[in-house]
Write a structure and sequence with these properties.
The complex is a heterodimer of chains A (about 475) and B (about 300).
Chain A lengths: L1 H4 L2 H18 L5 H6 L35 E7 L3 H17 L3 E7 L2 H13 L6 E3 L2 H9 L7 H6 L15 E2 L2 E2 L2 E13 H7 L10 H11 L1 E3 L2 E7 L5 H10 L17 E2 L5 E2 L4 H16 L24 E7 L3 H4 L6 E4 L14 E7 L7 H11 L2 H10 L3 E2 L13 H13 L12 H16 L5 H20 L1
Parallel strand pairs in A: 1-2, 1-3, 8-11
Antiparallel strand pairs in A: 3-13, 4-5, 6-11, 6-12, 6-13, 6-14, 7-8, 9-10
Chain B lengths: L1 H7 L1 H38 L2 E2 L7 E2 L3 H9 L1 H32 L6 H9 L6 H11 L6 H8 L11 H12 L4 H12 L3 H9 L4 H29 L3 H7 L10 H10 L4 H29 L10
Antiparallel strand pairs in B: 1-2
Helix pairs in contact in B: 2-14, 4-8, 4-9, 4-11, 4-13, 6-12, 9-11, 11-14, 13-14
Classes of the chains: A alpha+beta (about 475), B mainly alpha (about 300).
């Protein structure tokens, strides 16, 4: 009936403007989530949706004599991977067991969405009570005034900061503490012993330099019917760390690292500028480029393909050596072949070895609902029992020195190497965060795609990259 | 008409009732717009003139965000180009395929409801699940697409590892979603009066002539509707690039919505992202306006007798 009164022209024109209205809705204060829904099918994980409790990780174990309704809930934000959650939950369950007045709700998000969600939660005044916060993000939240200063609590509870490796928790700013130690992780290389055996290559030793790794990778690389089916040395999604390794270890004599304030992609002396055209940087990047484009021992971007259900090229036995992290050991335990770990190569000229160490403090963000519970939680996680549990879990390496010798999540011989690393490492974990850094890094990342796809040579790209990164930095810093 | 209305009052009453019915039909949308969208919409306009890093208060910076977008930020230009490229190819391809499928599904053969359902199902599956499925199909080594190409002697590219092939791959993938357009076309086809075809047959018109001179002209309002909606949807492409490529390689799939999202939620430049949304809104407004203006030349509306 209506169709007889309202013309088709009007109906379709109204509908068309209705469609435009959807686009208009996309212009709201939070544009992306709504615009995503304007595509034919809305995707539930497109946007940083509110963190949902992880059912399996709720540590509300029934404590004897304590009614569930009287428990004080602690929300715990983490970017732990699935392989880490099991070990993590055991530790939080233990916390709830010895602190029956509390229950813990783990809120886990993938790395990519965790920080976006956390920022929005903080802006909305509802962060988790305790959060995993890496040092650079800790600095970000400190700078914007959202971290809780725990210095007085540390002093009141007489916590000895020298009990921990490195600079305690890496969340110390302007002489004050803004977090408590939790876990550590170190960049390592993992290798498939079976593939080494098959190729007749001896296993890497801690004295291997870059040339030895390249030679081994050549022998591990394999072709079938004119098609590459295996590569010796992977890059994975670790481009920045991958680049950091040769940079950090100086190919050669370059003392920087991506995330250290001694160098890497940025020259942090004021004003901050790109260092991507530094001759040493070019040399290091060229080494990587040669592996991909000349030697063919490292796959190009998108060249490695995996059978369904295989998560990484290493797990799929498509690469012989791959960058990894000590916190990924739990994930590697499930693979059905022999593997081992080694530290990244030394610089042959200097004999020095530098690698990236990832400290992970627990921090409390302002606006959390349970400050007392949060402090009790992070304090307990920094003490002996929790740190020992962490040492055997494979989730992270402990930061408490006296718990280091309990490391059992790693292959036995590697434990000694890790201990040596953590106890003797010249800690220089960066808290370098500056305006325009994410945009500058995104620009570097997108331009380096030309190298990963062998479309351009880094030496040719470097001046252009330097210019575009400096333009971003200048624009941001005025 | 106005004289008659003045004389009797009946047409005016009828118009009023007609308008009321129209508003009733769109009232759910209006309710949503006024309660949920209008506030953020207006707020975003204000924010577009500010620097707002989310965790601090907005700071008024006048037109700088717009100046930066239009004259400084090369990536915005790249994202506009990518989005336009995607739209220019995906919309016509989608329309042609949907129209063809709708004609097939309009045949009177046994089990047709099942086929219609099958073609529509992809449109209601999760965007992320679809993206993962297509990533497997485009896999350089194990993927079905490259295997099919290999069967005819063509070495398939590394689809998402190549600046050249990444956008065509996403365009090809967009055809997965034509089910929605098919349903609308199907409704349009079923609304065409059968006597037109019967008269054409009597005059000796073949199937091609009937398609060209009856079906297509009678379907122009529906084609126009799908065109407008398709362009709006394509311009806002986000999910597949977000899940499958994250804008790479080398920004070749950096679409406007993805770049906007990055600015808002990775760089936390809410003011800048708001300005981007407003520029983009104006672009879509102009596009839609141009389409509406030109539609009078090629869209045929069959007005009812004594039409509204």
């Amino acid at each position: 009936m209506i169709g007889q009164r309202v013309s088709r022209r009007l109906v379709l024109q109204v509908a068309a403007f209705g469609g435009l209205g959807l686009a208009l809705a996309a212009c709201g204060a939070t544009p992306a989530p709504t615009t995503a829904a304007a595509t034919p099918v809305a995707a539930p994980t497109d946007t940083p949706a509110p963190i949902q409790p992880t059912a399996t990780a709720t540590a509300a174990t029934a404590a004897p004599g304590v009614a569930g309704s009287t428990k004080s809930k602690i929300t715990y934000g983490t970017f732990a991977e699935a392989s880490q959650l099991e070990g993590m939950t055991k530790i939080t369950n233990r916390f709830a067991e010895v602190n029956p007045q509390f229950e813990v709700e783990i809120q886990e998000k993938p790395w990519g969405q965790y920080w976006e969600a956390l920022e929005v939660q903080v802006a909305g005044g509802a962060p988790p009570d305790v959060s995993w916060i890496t040092p650079n993000y800790a600095y970000h939240f400190f700078k914007t005034g959202h971290l809780v200063d725990v210095t007085d609590l540390i002093q009141k509870d007489q916590i000895n900061v020298s009990d921990y490796v490195g600079e305690i928790m890496e969340a110390k700013f302007e002489g004050r503490y803004y977090g408590m130690p939790y876990g550590n992780g170190v960049m390592v290389w993992i290798y498939n012993k079976d593939l080494f055996d098959e190729a007749g290559v001896s296993y890497p030793t801690q004295d291997w330099g870059w040339d030895e790794f390249r030679d081994a990778a050549k022998k591990l690389t394999k072709e079938e019917n004119g098609q590459k089916v295996r590569w010796g040395l992977d890059m994975g999604g670790w481009w920045e760390n991958y680049a950091a390794i040769p940079l950090g270890n100086g190919i050669c004599e370059f003392t920087g690292g991506v995330f250290t304030d001694k160098g890497g992609y940025f020259d942090t002396s004021k004003p901050i500028k790109a260092a991507v055209n530094d001759p040493k940087f070019v040399q290091a990047m060229t080494w990587i480029e040669e592996n991909i484009c000349r030697e063919g021992i490292t796959p190009k971007s998108g060249e490695v393909t995996l059978a369904p259900g295989i998560e990484t090229a290493f797990d799929g036995k498509v690469v012989g050596i791959a960058p990894s992290g000590s916190w990924e050991i739990a994930a590697h335990r499930k693979v059905q072949f022999n593997w081992d770990l080694c530290l990244v190569p030394k610089c042959p000229k200097t004999g020095q070895r530098r690698t990236t160490t990832y400290a992970l403090p627990h921090a409390i963000l302002k606006g959390c609902k349970n400050l007392d519970g949060a402090w009790a939680f992070i304090k307990w996680h920094a003490q002996q029992e929790a740190q020992e549990m962490l040492a055997v879990s494979g989730v992270k390496d402990p930061m408490l020195k006296t718990a280091l010798d309990k490391l059992s999540g790693t292959p036995e011989h590697f434990k000694d190497m890790l201990m040596e690393h953590y106890l003797n490492y010249n800690w220089n974990m960066s808290t370098m965060v500056f305006d325009g850094q994410p945009e500058a890094e995104a620009e570097i990342s997108s331009k380096l795609d030309y190298i990963w796809t062998c479309e351009r040579k880094y030496a040719d790209l470097a001046p252009e990259l330097e210019q575009s990164v400096n333009a971003i930095l200048e624009q941001k810093t005025g | 008409m106005s004289t008659a209305a003045a004389t009797t009052g009946r047409p005016r009453r009828r118009n009023w009732r007609s308008a009321l019915e129209g508003y009733a039909c769109i009232s759910p949308w209006l309710f949503g717009f006024f309660t949920l969208t209008l506030g953020p919409f207006l707020a975003s306009f204000y924010m577009s003139f500010t620097e707002w890093p989310l965790l601090a208060s907005p700071r008024w910076i006048g037109l700088y965000n717009y100046q930066r977008l239009l004259f400084i930020d090369k990536k915005f230009g790249i994202s506009m180009f990518n989005t336009t490229y995607y739209t220019v190819f995906s919309v016509p391809l989608g329309l042609v395929l949907a129209f063809f499928l709708a004609i097939l599904l309009n045949q009177k053969v046994h089990g047709m409801p099942l086929f219609r359902t099958l073609f529509y199902v992809p449109s209601v599956t999760s965007g992320v699940a679809t993206a993962i499925l297509w990533a497997a199909l485009f896999d350089a080594r194990f993927g079905l697409i490259n295997s099919a190409l290999a069967a005819i002697g063509i070495k398939g590219p590394i689809w998402f590892g190549s600046r050249i092939w990444s956008k065509p791959a996403l365009i090809f993938m967009s055809l997965w979603y034509v089910g929605g357009e098919v349903v609308i076309f199907l409704a349009g086809l079923q609304g065409i009066a059968q006597h037109l075809y019967e008269a054409a047959e009597v005059d000796g018109a073949g199937s091609w002539a009937r398609l060209r001179h009856i079906t297509v002209p009678m379907m122009t309002p529906t084609i126009f509707f799908n065109l407008v909606m398709g362009i709006l949807g394509s311009f806002q492409v986000f999910t597949n690039a977000f899940v499958m490529t994250n804008g790479g390689p080398a920004d070749s799939t950096l679409f406007v919505m993805l770049y906007l999202y990055r600015n808002a939620f990775s760089y936390f430049q809410m003011g800048y992202a708001s300005a981007m949304a407003w520029i983009f809104f104006l672009v879509l407004l102009v596009f839609t306006g141009v389409q509406l203006a030109t539609s009078r030349r090629w869209v045929y509306y069959e007005e009812p007798a004594g039409g509204a």
